[in-house]
Design brief:
- By secondary structure, this protein is an alpha+beta fold.
- It is built from 8 helices and 28 strands.
- The strands form 6 sheets. The protein has an 8-stranded mixed β-sheet, sandwiched between helices. Strands 1, 3, 4, 6, 9, 10 and 12 form a 7-stranded antiparallel β-sheet that branches. Strands 2-5-11-7-8 form a 5-stranded antiparallel β-sheet, with no helix packed on it.
- Strand 23, helix 8 and strand 24 form a beta-alpha-beta unit.
- It is elongated, with a radius of gyration of 27 Å.
- The two termini are about 35 Å apart.
């Protein structure tokens, strides 16, 4: 990792001014960055005494609630910016603001108190590490210092000097100068037989970009039973790529009331096996809802997970699913540095699902039939729930849970596959769980079924019920309520592809 250096350090020691924006070029600027200077929504900047006889940029209050100034940075093409920490000198007059927040591209990275005084001295924040990671920034970057709190009088004045951002810039992974032999999906071009850019070597197979197909069968075709073994990227090569994240998460449950009690668990074990075969360097974690499972049954699952070298995390509510996605810890939902350093490539669900959940959209139910409730249908009255139904809600994963997921937890161009019934079945408002996932995670390709998902054919020979073991095939589409065959749909950024 490169050293953290001062990438931007504006100096304001240029004599008095009365302008907006403040366009003096910052000093000590990383050569891969440029800036248009500081700006504010209204009013002008001026100068007051700064530190050590220099000048400090200053402005008067503009609102009784909040005020802010913005530094606009531009990252050079083929470069990425990481910001690690910041510092600055500050002071407000007695009628000014007494607190601040620093926000970078919409992400709050730090906050603190402002020194309030009628004198000319300023205080330093000290070097503050960013609270939430801001990495891989490209193009235009907006750094906003928001002020609030205090008496907030109309004549209050805020001063700032020696504002420093620390971090580094690096080259992007996929930048390709002229003559570079790698191209589509960062794979090596094979131009000798089919001409320039028409064939790519993916290692296991050769890909023909003219038709969007492989020239041999998919070794992992059992993962995609609804697609041709020659397909590439769900037949959308401009939208879907081979992901390169670090963790795959699989959510599964025990079907205590079903004929095959382990069908969801066994499908999850198969998915884990496929993940390990396709990406042996990536970790796979199974989140298992343990409701109604005995100690002996749990031990069976642990043994199979150990055989596959898969991490098994036992959970007792759908809230813990969201927590682990956001933080890699089932007890907190706050986005963490652990998740920042271990982003999610694939997320899969194996459980029951319903077309109408508690908020009117489709839902996943990892603990089926608990408290005597087997289904959530259109007669479910959310406003008049019994105590048993309220308990049941903690085991139901729906749109509200999806909205609690932090999109930063996912690798760019990741995948989410929901093998639960009706996950893509729309309600009267045209919404579904798959669509909700896609809107919340715009860079993730999300798939699910319109209608029921069929687990009957997941075994090649064993019919299941009392044995924990990886299935032979993943589930496929079953039947819709109107009698038509279920079908799989795929969304990205809220739009079907």
């Amino acid at each position: 990792m490169p050293n953290h250096l001062s990438i931007s350090q504006p100096k304001f020691n240029f004599g008095k001014l009365n302008a907006n924006p403040y366009t003096r070029t910052p000093s000590n600027l990383d050569p891969n960055l440029s800036t248009t200077g500081w700006s504010r929504p209204s009013g002008t900047f001026t100068n007051f005494n700064g530190i050590s006889g220099t000048r400090a940029i200053a402005f008067e209050n503009t609102s009784a609630d909040t005020s802010y100034v913005t530094l606009n940075l531009s990252v050079d093409e083929a470069k990425l910016l990481d910001i690690a920490s910041f510092s600055f000198y500050h002071r407000s007059s007695p009628t000014g603001y007494n607190a601040y927040k620093l926000v970078i591209n919409g992400i709050e990275v730090g906050s603190g108190s402002i020194f309030v005084s009628s004198g000319n001295s300023l205080q330093h924040t000290g070097t503050i590490n960013v609270a939430n990671a801001v990495s891989g920034l490209s193009g235009n970057v907006t750094v906003t210092l928001k002020l609030f709190g205090g008496l907030k009088g109309a004549l209050g004045t805020f001063r700032m000097d020696d504002f420093v951002l620390n971090g580094y810039t690096t080259a992007t992974e996929n930048w390709s100068p002229a003559g570079y032999r790698y191209g589509f999906n960062s794979m090596e071009k094979d131009d000798e037989v089919k001409g320039g850019g028409n064939s790519y070597d993916f290692g296991a197979r050769m890909y023909d970009s003219r038709v969007g197909r492989w020239w041999s069968r998919d070794a992992f075709e059992r993962k995609y039973p609804d697609l041709s073994p020659y397909h590439f990227a769900m037949c959308s090569p401009l939208i879907v790529i081979d992901p390169n994240g670090k963790e795959n998460i699989i959510v599964a449950s025990y079907d205590g009331g079903g004929k095959d009690k382990y069908k969801f668990i066994n499908s999850a074990l198969l998915q884990a096996s496929i993940n390990k075969e396709e990406n042996p360097k990536e970790k796979t974690t199974i989140l298992l809802m343990t409701f109604n499972m005995t100690k002996e049954q749990m031990e069976w699952v642990r043994e199979e997970a150990n055989k596959l070298d898969v991490k098994l995390v036992e959970i007792s509510s759908t809230e813990q699913i969201v927590n682990y996605i956001n933080s890699r810890n089932i007890y907190t939902s706050k986005y963490s540095s652990k998740r920042e350093n271990d982003k999610i490539t694939d997320l899969s669900f194996f459980s029951h699902g319903y077309s109408e959940g508690m908020n009117g959209s489709s839902s996943i139910e990892p603990a089926h039939g608990i408290y005597g409730i087997g289904s959530l249908d259109t007669e479910y009255d959310f406003n008049n729930r019994t105590n048993e139904q309220k308990k049941h809600d903690s085991y139901t994963f729906d749109k509200d849970d999806v909205l609690s997921i932090d999109p930063r937890a996912f690798k760019s161009k990741s995948n989410c596959d929901i093998y639960s019934c009706n996950s893509a079945t729309k309600n009267i408002n045209g919404e579904s769980l798959v669509k909700s996932f896609s809107k919340q995670l715009p860079k993730t390709v999300t798939s699910g079924y319109v209608g029921r998902t069929d687990y009957i054919g997941i075994y090649g020979w064993y019919k299941g019920n009392e044995k924990v073991m990886p299935a032979d095939y993943l589930p496929v589409g079953g039947q819709q309520s109107n009698g038509n065959k279920s079908f799989k749909v795929t969304y990205k950024n809220g739009t079907k592809i």
